[in-house]
Amino acid sequence: xxxxxxxxxxxxxxxxxxxxxxxxxxxxxxxxxxxxxxxxxxxxxxxxxxxxxxxxxxxxxxxxxxxxxxxxxxxxxxxxxxxxxxxxxxxxxxxxxxxxxxxxxxxxxxxxxxxxxxxxxxxxxxxxxxxxxxxxxxxxxxxxxxxxxxxxxxxxxxxxxxxxxxxxxxxxxxxxxxxxxxxxxxxxxxxxxxxxxxxxxxxxxxxxxxxxxxxxxxxxxxxxxxxxxxxxxxxxxxxxxxxxxxxxxxxxxxxxxxxxxxxxxxxxxxxxxxxxxxxxxxxxxxxxxxxxxxxxxxxxxxxxxxxxxxxxxxxxxxxxxxxxxxxxxxxxxxxxxxxxxxxxxxxxxxxxxxxxxxxxxxxxxxxxxxxxxxxxxxxxxxxxxxxxxxxxxxxxxxxxxxxxxxxxxxxxxxxxxxxxxxxxxxxxxxxxxxxxxxxxxxxxxxxxxxxxxxxxxxxxxxxxxxxxxxxxxxxxxxxxxxxxxxxxxxxxxxxxxxxxxxxxxxxxxxxxxxxxxxxxxxxxxxxxx
Length: 529
Description:
The chain is an alpha/beta fold. The protein has helices at about 1-15, 60-70, 90-95, 100-105, 140-150, 165-175, 295-300, 310-320, 340-350, 365-380, 395-410, 420-425, 500-510, 510-525; strands spanning about 110-115, 120, 125-135, 180, 190-195, 215-220, 230-235, 250-255, 265-270, 275-280, 325-335, 355, 385-390, 415-420, 430-435, 445-450, 475-480. InterPro entries: APP1_cat, Mg2+_PAP.
């Protein structure tokens, strides 16, 4: 595999000094067509590369190059990060593929993906954001699940996996092949004080308190969408709950959808002021390697979810040392695989509310906007709270949107903490742009390599930079592939492990050559799917 990558990057280097048209013969044997391609408009007159974001603005040019190559590369290639959780079947497509008729579906029990909500305090009382999906789980045979699971496994088969990994692959595949229920009324939701206040039902964590009151039944005002989703704020009665303007502690309620075989979660009643940590999950809380498709798929579909380094200890320390801390976990993976993520988080990290990608956000452009959409909703719901954003550099939308949000919501973004995945993982070949951080105060952000770099930070007072972790920022493109850029530096914590890439980019790379380079890298990546 390494030799194939090397050959692909040699091709990329050659292409960087050649015209992007006509298509080079080296790519004549491109991968077969993917039926979920989302086309982008062609940019006939691209502006200079130095004025554009290589991972988002250049997307249409990359699509143009790929089209010229006659390839059928999937649409996630142009986003800069392999999005292998893309194009899952839903609803009628699942029923058809499994040979289910209306009578078969009617006989199945109704399940509810009840995603852990947050609630805010207003002059009218507590408002809970109930969200999730109503679906039915077909009784799919083991042999059928094996065949379906093999589609997601690269260079291996479910028959070659250890029993525990084969079981996990089947379970996750079963989560994907469910039948969402459109225009369905969500059954009555029952609320009661949560018995456990922390991770894995343990007391403490996240500034929680012993909740009293709140026992009641709630009816949602709307039916599900055509994708089976529901997402709405609903006011609840106090019934003994502490008013949000009279406490700084988070109250928690058990949330259960009646008559659903699966449908439990915990609601987090978050006061107007305090600190909220909004945390990404993949490659910051768990080892995923989304930038290496083969490893990313096997880590997600077969191998047990594994915490990245000692991040559970870091979060546990934050939850006990910072008063009234609220954790909000966010992943851009689609709802079908959310349950596995929630089970992993609540077994290893402090309890907290949760967000995932709704089913109506299905193509690449939507995937690259959903994170900001969900975070902005949290910001607007809690305009007086301070936020600490934790993620990694492998996501182009994070690198673009997080520094922007620090200026769009002045006074709310207290810290931005980003793991530099390419600084420690040679498999991360995707470039990222740090230019958005140029005008931010260094005390409000930090790029780091290891979990222990996050110790000794004064997050409560907005000091988010561990001064023992050099940054060496050039505020431009970092991690450019194929040797484009200076020699990597070994400085620990450096956000710019590739050196002064921006100068070389400005002097040596034209728009067409860089587009061709990205296209070659994308093709090399797709060869392993």
